[in-house]
Write a sequence for this structure.
């Protein structure tokens, strides 16, 4: 492949703008982030988001500008510099965070004049826009509960209730689906990107061949999404403790041994533009928990817990 030259670079607010010879592939990596091997033997689990900078590694690139790029006052990133120029046929743009662990995603696109723009999300709720994705729907009913209820119906009901709570707190909420309609995983991802979401939350209900399993879980893909997953999961666990207060068998299974906040590469949350999490509200395959989830008053409590977790995350990061 022909080698690329970055002939010009600048910073504009929270964006870095690059002029390239051709559209070379690149990868982004959060650095000084510690991981451990956890759920499903994956080595990408996070106890705390600790990244200090992001490396953008451009393939087939051997010439770059000499000067650094400095970002605006309100940007979460401070400056960017080029490193390892031409090493193994690649060059690395290192973007430093102003505050360790304070990062909320980026968007990369080519502008009308064919320059590459990498734009960093300023704050988790800078525009207070959240995309809620009620899992399944239409021709895809999801799991079928122990009492015959469809997961898709449980998910949309909880998501609609979350929407009401968040809107009452001044948050703009858009839904990937309304009613019993079907959207593909690609369409759900594209929807979040097009909406320029500050957060993406997929609402699901779990199922297993082992009907004894119960409790709630929260999944993230990007390390910077883990704090949001943790905040929502903590509130959900609190609700289930209340619901199972007089049922010690179920109470002891609310939180799994690994803590329930897990890395997993679910397609719908594999986006870099904002914190994105998938919430498993409970197990429809467990007869006791299915009956709990089938109760409207309980779904109201679950929805409030999700919204409380979102607002707590916002208050910790504003």
């Amino acid at each position: 492949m022909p080698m690329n030259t970055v002939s010009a670079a600048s910073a504009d607010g929270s964006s870095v703008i690059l002029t390239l010879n051709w559209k070379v592939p690149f990868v982004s990596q959060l650095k000084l982030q510690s991981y451990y091997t956890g759920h499903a033997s994956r080595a990408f689990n996070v106890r705390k988001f600790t990244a200090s900078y992001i490396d953008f590694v451009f393939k087939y690139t051997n010439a770059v500008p000499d000067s650094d790029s400095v970002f605006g006052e309100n940007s979460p990133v401070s400056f960017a510099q080029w490193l390892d120029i031409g090493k193994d046929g690649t060059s690395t743009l290192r973007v430093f965070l102003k505050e360790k662990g304070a990062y909320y995603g980026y968007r990369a696109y080519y502008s009308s004049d064919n320059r590459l723009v990498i734009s960093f999300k300023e704050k988790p709720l800078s525009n207070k826009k959240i995309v809620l994705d009620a899992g399944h729907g239409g021709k895809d009913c999801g799991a079928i509960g122990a009492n015959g209820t469809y997961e898709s119906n449980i998910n949309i009901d909880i998501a609609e209730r979350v929407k009401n709570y968040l809107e009452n707190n001044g948050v703009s909420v858009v839904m990937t689906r309304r009613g019993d309609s079907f959207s593909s995983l690609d369409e759900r991802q594209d929807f979040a990107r097009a909406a320029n979401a500050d957060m993406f939350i997929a609402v699901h209900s779990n199922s297993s061949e082992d009907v004894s399993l119960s409790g709630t879980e929260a999944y993230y893909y990007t390390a910077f999404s883990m704090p949001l997953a943790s905040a929502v999961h903590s509130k959900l666990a609190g609700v289930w403790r209340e619901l199972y207060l007089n049922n010690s068998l179920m109470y002891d299974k609310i939180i799994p041994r690994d803590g329930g906040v897990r890395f997993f590469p679910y397609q719908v949350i594999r986006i870099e533009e904002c914190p994105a999490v998938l919430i498993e509200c409970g197990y429809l395959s467990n007869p006791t928990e299915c009956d709990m989830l089938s109760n409207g008053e309980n779904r109201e409590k679950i929805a409030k817990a999700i919204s409380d977790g979102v607002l707590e995350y916002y208050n910790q990061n504003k």
Summary: The domain at 129-317 is CATH 3.40.630.40 (Aminopeptidase). DSSP finds six helices and 16 strands in the chain.
